[in-house]
């Protein structure tokens, strides 16, 4: 069953078909469409409706070619649409390049398309990168013979808060509607009306609410669809494009960053068939303005004698930070999950080499020691080359099991790939989840209902139920949320081991997977080296050029917070952590206050930087090279979009402090770090044992009240979505999902009260939820569930809040 | 002015969907029922259909705006259609339509101020042998003249009972839509089997004793004698034409001609 | 004596309450079904093949062959769908058939479904014919009550259900794949083929789609034998068909005759062109079939005869226009029809018909120049065979054929500065007023 990386892209070469295109003989796989066979012969046939990732439709008729021989000795009397016609052995195709008939047919279609197309190219966003404009030049008549009345519409209409439609520009290729229906599963735009009045439309009360709506703009072959964010902002020929990798999730989607004079103007999906194909989420596309906000930090600051932060030079800040940390004594390091693998390596190195501690943790969220063991045993060092599952495996697997993971919200590229897998290959998607979400339904998935905290038992039961098909051909994807469900990660690992299924951990954040490899964990050194293994410590120490490394396992993030509060730790180095994400936001804030010395590395001013003693501005991903490691373990390196000498990556800052501390880290640049990481390499010794925690019982309603199921919706109040109000306006309306009995008892507006506060939201009935479970979005109101409502694993009470 | 879909209508919509192996097949008749219940395609009706069929309201809307019998503006008690496709137009449909617009003081697809009559010009309604043809709530009104048309709409507006020229007593538009949704109204046995033009060939055959051959009469004498020229003519047909001809099967695409030929062989 | 007209389908239309089961059975209705149920399904397919029956919906594809394409080893259900969306301008045969004798169709549906081994059939009737729908609904209900439909029909072990489905106003749904879209509750836009409906039609299952008249002919073929049917008609166009005469003839109406009859014979039976006038142009099978003129009166009205004249037999919708009619006006109106009915899916049909109407409308008003005729022909050339389905092709037929036969009349509009015809002379009552 093993499918090695990328092999599904290598087409079986046994079924080749020979065709002659414009006199050139080419061999292409059976079932190849003529339009794509022609590409291989070096001929670009003009097209609009055709898109390689959408089902052929043959609507625009632009790609007509002459087929004098269909492979059976007989030709087609009329030109044929090359986008719907598969090749046949011996077929002869004459395109516009060699056939006057095909050329005339194409010119005729182009003339028809322009009959009702406005001549507003000079003010159209698409001008300069417009397939219609370009192909009208290459395959159209010089002048129109149409002298009549063009179809016009009042312009433009919003089909969502973000996407606008100029109907008169639309050539009705239906790429957008087909994308929404076939790929995203959000058919909220449809062709409406008929004939020449046909147009793309929404239902008046239902905008195009889709996390993937921006893709429709990108594949629109004319300027009919534009984003509110980019509309009228720049001209394509003024933009410089740099390929990059999206920083909003662990999917590693390829993107293209278009920028002008040091400013990102827009982002587009890159084309990477092995990862995101040609699609990205709206968050990946539109959420980049967070780095352009007025509260962006641009210079180092140190706390002066007067207790206020003041600007400082880099050397002074390095020196002050080093002095302060030395004075503070024992220091912990919290890195957050958004750093690149190189920066994570720097934090890991800094903790061990400069601070001599294992008190380092990237998990700025609810966590467990079971999770740390799971990451060390089952996640670190996994890689597609060593059998870790890939996107391609999702497509070919007979069964994919989702445990504590909602791909549509938490990993968009996985969601799209699983939807494709289900539609094209019949992949069965199973989710251990509190209810069957809309995202799961779009993947044709089945929910195996589990209350939060009770997942372990349900996961164990999967093994016994053969009808679920969890066997060696299955793929198991585990979300980071399982960390707080006792025994669940152990059960997941056991399930994989017993069935032979492939297992992967899917964190939410782009940097988490790299942080595991870099050893930003209290029990793990870089390259999967266990802190507890003397040989592993020696190996790492040798690579780092130090004599010894601390041998005691460090504190995890929660313990670091606790130790700061009670004074066991004095210093804190903190980068990219939002206290409200952590398992106890108030405690994290208190820890920052309580620490005797805090060094903060941040992009923008936050509660943490305001309380810190030294604040270093760090480079956003656009300003630095780096690597994100996907959930598959696939490295996704990227180069800097901008060269900004004043914008330093975390690793350069940590190196500067370390040098002042007298413990140089051995690197100053991204290239240095990459070399050091390669040098240290993966641990080839004994791996830690898989955890075998038992489920905590998770007894329903043991404590009274109802339990909270929760995850972050893709578009929510996350700070990395700041700055694009259009994107934020496309967020799903926050609601509480409640089981029928609670709905009947409390009505359409409910107040939840937990140990951290109360939240009032509209209630939506969900008949699949267990009786004692309600679902709330984790960060869509106020400061989020952890700060405003309840601690992880606790229960809440429900009250009707209606009139 | 629209109101919610009643529980009864909702149940009937569900029953339509249940007639089919796949519920979405019920959408066209369901929208007819929405028009019957609500007097037009309403947002409430669209949402109810979307809800029952598990599709998006945009998809329902795409269907509701594709078919011309679905109306987004309220329709009068009587939908009066005048065929103005070529043959009926030439035979007087244009004149009738102009006369009615003037008489009713409405434009195309507009309703009289009393809410009684909605006037619309129609494409061919498959009654060309009765041209010029009008339809009232989709019942045939054959062989009309401007005078008869004016009298017809006057009768409709005054509440007089009107009967189709070869059909039943005219019901209201909303009642008609209910029948289209698949809920019979008991008027099936009204009216004749056929109008006079439908019977004209049969009448001649009866008159002259012409019949189809008897079942055991193999050779007939009923066939048109084979004309020698005909075979030649047939052979002269180019491949091109034959291919096209084969492909126009029930107005089918010509563009897959060669493939279809292959399929046929 | 040779019978020029051969009433089979129309034979009972004049009967008392012909639409009822009692009336239909009184003259042997459903006997063919009982016979069919004793036959092997493949033998029924063979009989229909042997009869030479070709599709009566316009294209003339051999019906039995269509049925034999249904892959019987496909485990999916098989469906029969009757195309009762009669909408082609000039075509008016299926509607009176279903109104007068819906049981002929229902019996045909049962036999045909039995032959292809389908257990569910659909009759898709255009929505704009209320009383016809009533009659078919009632006939289906009566057939159920009589045990002709439902489970274990007449103890044969064969089950069949029929759903009568009303359309909602879209000419394009006469195109079989667009009809399937409509029947699946979608916009009636044609589907890509292949896959062909025989392989993946309704619900992606093997599906036969036949015209009303084709299916209604099946009981007579099963009842009387393939040879009986084949004894009528011409060599390649066997059997009988309903010829619909409309327009400027004295007795417009339905005439059922063997294929191959000439228009001259039919016009004679219809009492000739209206008094004092001459035939100017006519359509052999609806507006999508290229126009012919008086010089074509003696051509055999069969598939080959019409193809030989550069046109098509189509639906035998013979619309006759006399010399009072302006061909430019007629063609403009048809073109407006195609524009109105274009589904919008493909560019040449959607945009082409939009443009054709504007060009023709200007010419009819006497605006433009002679070069516009070449422009029109070139537009047609860019639509014909380029559009997704035959609707676009059909839109070009009246234009190209009328320019071919009546180029001078187009030019007369330019020299006259408008239409040189008096439209009032063409109306049904024009002659009567003159006589009165």
Automatic annotation (TrEMBL), chain A:
Pfam families: Fer2_4, Fer4_NDSU1, Fer4_Nqo3, Molybdopterin, NADH-G_4Fe-4S_3
Protein EC: 7.1.1.-
Domain of life: Bacteria
Entry keywords, A to Z: 2Fe-2S, 4Fe-4S, Iron, Iron-sulfur, Metal-binding, NAD, Quinone, Translocase
Reactions the enzyme catalyzes: a quinone + NADH + 5 H(+)(in) = a quinol + NAD(+) + 4 H(+)(out)
Cofactor(s) the protein needs: [2Fe-2S] cluster; [4Fe-4S] cluster
Cofactor note: Binds 1 [2Fe-2S] cluster per subunit.
SUPFAM superfamilies: 2Fe-2S ferredoxin-like, 4Fe-4S ferredoxins, ADC-like, Formate dehydrogenase/DMSO reductase, domains 1-3
Family (UniProt): Belongs to the complex I 75 kDa subunit family.
Function of the molecule: NDH-1 shuttles electrons from NADH, via FMN and iron-sulfur (Fe-S) centers, to quinones in the respiratory chain. Couples the redox reaction to proton translocation (for every two electrons transferred, four hydrogen ions are translocated across the cytoplasmic membrane), and thus conserves the redox energy in a proton gradient.
Descriptive protein name: NADH-quinone oxidoreductase
Automatic annotation (TrEMBL), chain B:
Record note on cofactor: Binds 1 [2Fe-2S] cluster.
The keyword Metal-binding belongs to this UniProt entry's keyword annotation: yes
InterPro entries for this protein: NuoE-like, NuoE_dom, NuoE_N, Thioredoxin-like_sf
Single annotated GO MF: NADH dehydrogenase activity
Record carries keyword Metal-binding: yes
Alphabetical UniProt keywords: 2Fe-2S, Iron, Iron-sulfur, Metal-binding
Chain intervals for the UniProt region annotation (Disordered): 210-265
Family membership noted in the UniProt record: Belongs to the complex I 24 kDa subunit family.
NCBIfam families named in the record: nuoE_fam, PRK07539.1-1
UniProt-recorded name of the protein: NADH-quinone oxidoreductase subunit E
Organism of provenance: Nocardioides lianchengensis
Lineage, broadest ranks: Bacteria, Bacillati, Actinomycetota, Actinomycetes, Propionibacteriales
UniProtKB/TrEMBL annotation, chain C:
Superkingdom of source: Bacteria
Keywords, alphabetical: 4Fe-4S, Flavoprotein, FMN, Iron, Iron-sulfur, Metal-binding, NAD, Quinone, Translocase
SUPFAM superfamilies, sorted: Nqo1 FMN-binding domain-like, Nqo1 middle domain-like, Nqo1C-terminal domain-like
Listed GO biological process terms: cellular respiration
Catalyzed reactions: a quinone + NADH + 5 H(+)(in) = a quinol + NAD(+) + 4 H(+)(out)
Gene3D superfamilies: 3.10.20.600, 6.10.250.1450, NADH-ubiquinone oxidoreductase 51kDa subunit, NADH-ubiquinone oxidoreductase 51kDa subunit, iron-sulphur binding domain
Enzyme Commission number: 7.1.1.-
PROSITE patterns in the record: COMPLEX1_51K_2 (PS00645)
Residues covered by the NADH-ubiquinone oxidoreductase 51kDa subunit iron-sulphur binding domain: 328-373
Database matches in InterPro entries: ComplexI_51kDa_subunit, NADH-UbQ_OxRdtase_51kDa_CS, NADH-UbQ_OxRdtase_suF, Nuo51_FMN-bd, Nuo51_FMN-bd_sf, Nuop51_4Fe4S-bd, Nuop51_4Fe4S-bd_sf, Soluble_ligand-bd
Broadest EC class assigned to this enzyme: translocase
Alphabetized GO MF terms: 4 iron, 4 sulfur cluster binding; FMN binding; metal ion binding; NAD binding; NADH dehydrogenase (ubiquinone) activity; NADH dehydrogenase activity; quinone binding
Cofactor requirements of the protein: FMN; [4Fe-4S] cluster
Function: NDH-1 shuttles electrons from NADH, via FMN and iron-sulfur (Fe-S) centers, to quinones in the respiratory chain.
Family designation: Belongs to the complex I 51 kDa subunit family.
Protein name: NADH-quinone oxidoreductase subunit F
């Amino acid at each position: 069953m093993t499918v090695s990386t990328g092999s599904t892209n290598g087409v079986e070469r046994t079924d080749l078909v020979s065709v002659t295109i414009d006199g050139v003989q080419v061999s292409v796989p059976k079932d190849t469409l003529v339009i794509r066979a022609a590409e291989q012969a070096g001929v670009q046939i003009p097209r609009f409706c055709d898109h390689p990732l959408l089902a052929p439709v043959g609507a625009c008729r632009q790609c007509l070619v002459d087929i004098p021989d269909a492979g059976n000795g007989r030709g087609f009397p009329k030109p044929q649409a090359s986008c719907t016609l598969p090749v046949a052995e011996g077929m002869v195709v004459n395109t516009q390049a060699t056939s006057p008939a095909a050329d005339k047919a194409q010119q005729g279609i182009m003339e028809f398309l322009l009959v009702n197309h406005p001549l507003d190219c000079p003010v159209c966003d698409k001008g300069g990168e417009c397939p219609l404009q370009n192909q009208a030049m290459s395959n159209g008549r010089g002048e129109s013979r149409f002298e009549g009345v063009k179809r016009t519409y009042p312009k433009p209409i919003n089909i969502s808060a973000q996407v606008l439609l100029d109907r008169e520009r639309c050539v009705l290729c239906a790429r957008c509607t087909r994308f929404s229906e076939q790929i995203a599963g959000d058919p909220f735009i449809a062709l409406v009306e008929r004939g020449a009045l046909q147009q793309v439309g929404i239902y008046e009360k239902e905008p195009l609410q889709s996390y993937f709506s921006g893709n429709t703009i990108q594949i629109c072959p004319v300027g009919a669809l534009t984003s509110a964010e980019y509309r009228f902002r720049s001209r394509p020929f003024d933009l410089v494009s740099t390929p990059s990798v999206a920083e909003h999730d662990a999917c590693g989607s390829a993107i293209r960053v278009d920028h002008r004079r040091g400013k990102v103007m827009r982002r587009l999906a890159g084309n990477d068939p092995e990862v995101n194909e040609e699609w990205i989420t709206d968050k990946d596309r539109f959420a980049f303005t967070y780095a352009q906000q007025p509260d962006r930090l641009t210079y180092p600051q140190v706390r002066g004698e007067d207790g206020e932060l003041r600007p400082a030079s880099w050397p002074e800040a390095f020196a002050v930070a080093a002095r302060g940390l030395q004075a503070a004594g024992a220091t912990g390091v919290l890195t957050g999950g958004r750093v690149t693998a190189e920066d994570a390596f720097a934090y890991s190195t800094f903790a061990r080499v400069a601070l001599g501690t294992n008190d380092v943790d990237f998990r700025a969220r609810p966590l467990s020691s079971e999770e740390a063991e799971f990451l060390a045993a089952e996640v670190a060092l996994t890689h597609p080359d060593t059998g870790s599952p890939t996107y391609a495996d999702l497509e070919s697997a007979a069964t994919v099991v989702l445990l504590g993971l909602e791909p549509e919200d938490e990993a968009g590229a996985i969601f799209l790939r699983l939807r494709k897998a289900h539609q094209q290959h019949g992949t069965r998607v199973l989710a251990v989840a509190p209810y069957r979400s809309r995202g799961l339904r779009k993947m044709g998935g089945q929910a195996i209902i589990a209350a939060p905290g009770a997942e372990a038992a349900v996961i164990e039961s999967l093994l016994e139920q053969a009808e679920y098909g969890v066997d060696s051909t299955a793929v198991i994807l585990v979300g980071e949320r399982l960390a707080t469900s006792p025994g669940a990660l152990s059960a997941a690992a056991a399930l994989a081991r017993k069935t032979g299924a492939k297992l992967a951990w899917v964190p939410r954040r782009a940097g988490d997977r790299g942080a595991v490899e870099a050893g930003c964990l209290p029990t793990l050194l870089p390259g999967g080296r266990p802190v507890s293994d003397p040989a592993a410590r020696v190996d790492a120490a040798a690579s780092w050029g130090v004599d010894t490394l601390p041998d005691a396992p460090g504190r995890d993030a929660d313990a670091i917070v606790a130790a700061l509060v009670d004074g066991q730790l004095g210093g804190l180095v903190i980068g990219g952590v939002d206290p409200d994400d952590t398992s106890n936001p108030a405690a994290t804030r208190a820890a920052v206050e309580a620490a005797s010395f805090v060094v903060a590395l941040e992009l923008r001013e936050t509660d943490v930087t305001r309380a810190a003693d030294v604040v270093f501005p760090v480079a956003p991903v656009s300003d630095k090279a780096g690597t994100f490691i996907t959930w598959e373990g696939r490295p996704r390196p990227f180069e800097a979009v901008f060269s900004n000498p004043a914008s330093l990556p975390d690793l350069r800052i940590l190196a500067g402090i370390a040098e002042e501390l007298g413990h140089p880290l051995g690197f100053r640049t991204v290239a240095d770090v990459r070399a050091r990481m390669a040098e240290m390499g993966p641990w080839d010794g004994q791996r830690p044992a898989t955890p075998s925690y038992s489920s905590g019982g998770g007894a329903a309603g043991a404590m009274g009240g109802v339990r909270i199921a929760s995850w972050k919706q893709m578009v929510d109040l996350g700070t990395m979505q700041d700055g694009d109000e259009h994107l934020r306006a496309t967020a799903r309306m926050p609601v509480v999902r409640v089981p029928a009995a609670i709905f009947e008892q409390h009505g359409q507006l409910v107040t939840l009260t937990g140990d951290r506060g109360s939240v009032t939201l509209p209630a939506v009935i969900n008949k699949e939820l267990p009786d004692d479970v309600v679902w709330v979005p984790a960060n869509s109101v106020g400061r989020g569930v952890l700060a405003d409502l309840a601690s992880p694993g606790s229960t809440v009470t429900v009250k009707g809040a209606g009139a | 002015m629209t109101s919610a879909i009643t529980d009864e209508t909702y149940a009937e919509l569900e029953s339509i969907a249940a007639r089919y192996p796949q519920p979405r097949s019920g959408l066209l008749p369901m929208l007819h029922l929405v028009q019957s219940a609500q007097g037009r395609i309403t947002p409430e009706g669209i949402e109810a259909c979307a809800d029952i069929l598990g599709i998006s309201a945009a998809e329902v809307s795409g269907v509701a705006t594709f078919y011309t019998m679905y109306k987004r503006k309220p329709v009068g008690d009587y939908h009066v259609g005048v065929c103005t496709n070529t043959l009926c137009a030439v035979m007087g449909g244009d004149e009738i339509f102009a006369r009615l617009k003037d008489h009713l003081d409405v434009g195309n697809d507009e309703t009289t101020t009393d809410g009684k009559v909605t006037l619309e010009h129609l494409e061919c309604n498959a009654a060309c042998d009765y041209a010029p043809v009008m339809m009232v709530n989709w019942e045939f009104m054959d062989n009309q003249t401007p005078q008869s048309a004016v009298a017809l709409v006057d009768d409709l507006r005054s509440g007089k009972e009107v009967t189709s020229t070869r059909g039943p007593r005219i019901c209201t538009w909303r009642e008609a839509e209910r029948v289209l949704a698949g809920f019979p109204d008991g008027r099936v046995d009204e009216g004749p089997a056929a109008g006079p033009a439908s019977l004209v060939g049969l009448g001649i055959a009866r008159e002259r004793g012409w019949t189809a051959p008897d079942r055991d009469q193999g050779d007939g004498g009923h066939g048109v004698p084979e004309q020698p020229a005909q075979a030649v003519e047939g052979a002269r047909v180019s491949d091109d034409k034959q291919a096209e001809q084969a492909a126009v099967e029930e107005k089918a695409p010509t563009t897959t001609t060669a493939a279809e030929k292959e399929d046929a062989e | 004596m040779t019978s020029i007209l051969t009433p089979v389908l129309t034979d009972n239309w004049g009967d008392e309450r012909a639409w009822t089961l009692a009336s239909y059975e009184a003259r042997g209705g459903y006997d063919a079904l009982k016979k069919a149920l004793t036959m092997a399904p493949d033998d029924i397919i063979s009989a229909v093949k042997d009869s030479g029956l070709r599709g009566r919906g316009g294209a003339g594809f051999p019906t039995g062959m269509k049925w034999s394409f249904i892959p019987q080893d496909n485990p999916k259900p098989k469906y029969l769908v009757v195309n009762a969306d009669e909408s082609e301008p000039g075509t008016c045969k299926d509607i009176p058939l279903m109104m007068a004798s819906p049981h002929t169709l229902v019996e045909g549906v049962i036999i045909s479904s039995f032959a292809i081994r389908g257990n569910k059939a659909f009759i898709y009737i255009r929505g704009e014919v209320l009383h016809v729908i009533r009659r078919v609904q009632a006939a289906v209900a009566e057939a159920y009550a009589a045990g002709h439909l439902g489970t274990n029909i007449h103890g044969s072990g064969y089950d069949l259900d029929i759903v009568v489905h009303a359309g909602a106003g879209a000419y394009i749904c006469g195109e079989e794949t667009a009809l399937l879209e409509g029947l699946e509750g979608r916009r009636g836009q044609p589907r890509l083929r292949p896959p062909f409906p025989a392989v993946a039609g309704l619900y992606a299952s093997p599906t036969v789609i036949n015209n009303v008249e084709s299916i209604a002919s099946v009981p007579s073929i099963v009842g009387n034998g393939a040879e009986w049917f084949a004894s009528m008609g011409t060599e390649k166009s066997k059997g009988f068909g309903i010829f619909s005469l409309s327009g400027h003839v004295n007795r417009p109406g339905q005439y059922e005759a063997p294929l191959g009859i000439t228009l001259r014979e039919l016009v004679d039976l219809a009492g000739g062109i209206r008094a004092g006038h001459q035939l100017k142009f006519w359509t052999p099978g609806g507006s999508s079939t290229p126009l012919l003129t008086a010089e074509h009166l003696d051509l055999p009205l069969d598939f080959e005869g019409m193809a030989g004249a550069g046109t098509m037999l189509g639906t035998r919708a013979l619309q006759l226009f006399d010399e009072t009619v302006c061909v430019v006006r007629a063609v403009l109106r048809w073109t407006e029809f195609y524009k109105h009915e274009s589904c919008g899916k493909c560019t040449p049909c959607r945009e082409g018909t939009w443009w054709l109407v504007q060009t023709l409308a200007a010419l009819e008003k006497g605006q433009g120049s002679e070069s516009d005729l070449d422009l029109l022909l070139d537009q047609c050339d860019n639509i014909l065979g380029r559009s997704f389905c035959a609707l676009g092709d059909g839109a070009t037929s009246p234009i190209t054929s009328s320019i071919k036969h009546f180029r001078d009349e187009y030019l007369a509009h330019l020299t006259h500065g408008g239409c040189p015809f008096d439209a009032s002379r063409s109306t049904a009552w024009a002659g009567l007023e003159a006589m009165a």
